[in-house]
Amino acid sequence: MFGLIRNEMLVISGRWRSYIGFIGISVLMPLILWGFVYGSENIHQEYARELGESFMVVGSIINAFLATYIIMNALWIHIPFLVALAAGDAVAADGSNGIFRITLTRPVSRLKILTSKLIATYIYTALLLLFCALWSVGIGSLVLGTGDLIVIDKGILILSREEALVRMALSFAVAILVMFSVATLCFMFSAMVNNGIGPIIGAMLIIIIGYLVKAIPLDFFDRIEPFMIVSYFDVWLDAFRDPIPWSDIWNKLTILTLFSVSFYGIAVYVFLKKDITS
Amino acid sequence: MILEAKNLTKFYGLRKAVDGLHLEIPQGSVYGFLGPNGSGKSTTIRMMTALISPDEGEVVIKGKSVNQFGNEALNGVGALIERADFHKHLSGRTNLEMLARMDGTNFDRIDYVLERTGLSQRGDDKVKTYSQGMKQRLGIAQALLSNPELLILDEPTNGLDPSGMKEVRDLIGELSAEGITIFVSSHLLDEVQKICTHAAIIHLGRLITSGEMDTLLKDSELFVTEIRVSDAAKTTELLSSLDWVFHCESSNGSVKVNMDKARISYAVKLLVESGVEVSAVIPRTSLEEVFLSKIGSGSPI
Ligand SMILES: Nc1ncnc2c1ncn2[C@@H]1O[C@H](COP(=O)(O)OP(=O)(O)O)[C@@H](O)[C@H]1O
Ligand SMILES: [Mg+2]
């Protein structure tokens, strides 16, 4: 199994599409941070208004943590896309390249091969988010410095530098698990077809439609919301509540895991029965 | 029997691509699987190698049903199906390493199979720099990787030039001599006749005939070599007396012979020494030709 996963990582690292996510994030982060440096006046004023005179903030308000927090909020549609970009090819590419003719004719079960592909996709997803976190907090610290994190959501929460770092780590850990569900969704489609683009479009459609349904305040939409995967994506925000709502986080992650298990189950069912005619 | 196909049937939609096929591949044979393009060879081979599942019937390899055991039944089987495709941005060697890693094959085998297929010099180059012939040889190399007892090759000479075809035929001969059973498909009669001990012929997914090559040569009209000569009557007389000529008949200026292909040059020498001028030796090469001419003349195959 380890060998199979290693093979898959080798293939992923050889695809140029795998680097789009990393390149995108590398370029985007400095740009956004640059925007913070030069456009920080507005944010400053807004925060000053909210906070009034009554708080003592250690360090700069506009710091690496706040920038990362705002970036995470803003990139919530982009990151799934970058994950889907890699997951779409996970199974389909081997079909369209004819690789299955040399791999699936060996005495290794299809279940093992499929599972190793999923694990490799997860590793890629985790690496992408880790890179995102390190890059954002990393160059953020260089450009903006660190300091207390002030979260204005339902009320104002001021987190000390150390606490902010812990919450950041927690939220990225949770975000990685959320992205696993996106990866599994796209992976399921990838197991069904022989081209890498269809699964990306399929997964993104489901996510975008999900966001729309969430955004439109119709009674019927509210009722189907619990059955949509996107309804649980914002669990990473819970890491910035006080006290941390562990049971909420646990419940949402459990539901996301159930989604992933179902997607994987369908992928297995389809792939084990699939006729390889390409 | 190392491999048996029983009543193998596969539909693509409403079209029956393979229709109630029975095959028995004896241990140690070089088994030719002959049929014109589109006759269902690749579909049959995909069922043998667990790539697609039959709608009826089953394939049994070394006593294990492929339907039941899936890929696990392919222990000791090496296969090359249609075109050989690899990860193009990786080297031939890296591709083989990945495949070896899958079933725990020792990496030492990689040098051996590269050497065997004449790729030692180019193993470290990326596959995208390979010619069609080299890719095909790498395809055979990966089939040999796990030291198989049974090699299943689907038109391994497709897309190769005549010298490439000969190299593959020679390699098949060597491997067979080492005790590997080989099942090889082709649409070229001539090719199968040269290398196989057994053959089966299919057309439109149905088995036309099968058995040992010698028997087929005797009985089948399909394996005919046409010899153009100055004296047809004398040629018929001379050749008919030889025990490796199975059938011989003359028709306006040429003689049609069922014979062991390996002895053609000897036959020509014999004729020339007896004062018969030989202007052409034309082996039936393509099954399409044969079937077309049969269908054209309205006679049953
Ligand atoms: N994936 C497919 N979908 C539909 N029909 C197919 C498919 N593959 C092959 N066929 C049809 O099945 C028949 C047998 O094809 P094939 O097994 O590839 O023949 P061969 O290998 O002898 O050339 C042909 O009529 C072909 O058109
Ligand atoms: Mg074919």
Characterize this entry briefly.
The complex is a heterodimer of chains A (278) and B (301). Chain A has 278 residues and is mainly α. Chain A has 11 helices and 2 strands; from the N terminus they run H-H-H-H-H-H-H-E-E-H-H-H-H.
Overview of this protein structure:
With 278 residues, chain A is mostly helical. Chain A has one domain (2-272). Chain A is 72% helix and 4% strand. Chain A has helices spanning 2-14, 17-51, 64-74, 78-87, 89-96, 100-103, 110-144, 161-192, 197-215, 219-224, 246-273; strands at 149-153, 155-159. In chain A, strands 1-2 form a two-stranded antiparallel sheet. In chain A, helix 4 packs antiparallel against helix 9 and helix 8 crosses helix 9. The longest helix of chain A has 35 residues, at 17-51. Chain A is elongated, with a radius of gyration of 21 Å. With 301 residues, chain B is α/β, with parallel strands linked by helices. Chain B has 2 domains: 3-212, P-loop containing nucleotide triphosphate hydrolases (Rossmann fold); 222-284, Alpha-Beta Plaits (2-Layer Sandwich), CATH 3.30.70.100. Chain B has helices spanning 41-48, 66-69, 92-103, 108-116, 132-144, 162-177, 189-195, 213-219, 232-240, 264-273, 287-297, and strands at residues 3-12, 15-25, 30-34, 56-61, 64-65, 77-80, 150-154, 181-186, 198-203, 206-212, 225-229, 245-251, 254-259, 278-283. A 6-stranded mixed β-sheet of chain B has the order 6-7-8-3-9-10, with helices on both faces. Chain B has a 4-stranded antiparallel β-sheet with strand order 2-1-4-5. In chain B, strand 7, helix 6 (162-177) and strand 8 (181-186) form a beta-alpha-beta unit. In chain B, helix 3 packs across helix 4 (108-116) and helix 4 packs across helix 5 (132-144). The longest helix of chain B is centred in the middle third of the chain and has 16 residues, at 162-177. Chain B is globular and about 65 Å long. The two termini of chain B are 28 Å apart. The chains are: A mainly alpha (278), B alpha/beta (301). Chain A binds chain B through residues 3-4, 6-7, 10-11, 14, 97-110, 273, 275-277, and chain B through 46, 49-53, 70-75, 77, 79-87, 89-90, 94, 98-99, 101-104, 139, 142, 146. Adenosine-5'-diphosphate binds at residues 12, 17, 35, 37-43 of chain B.
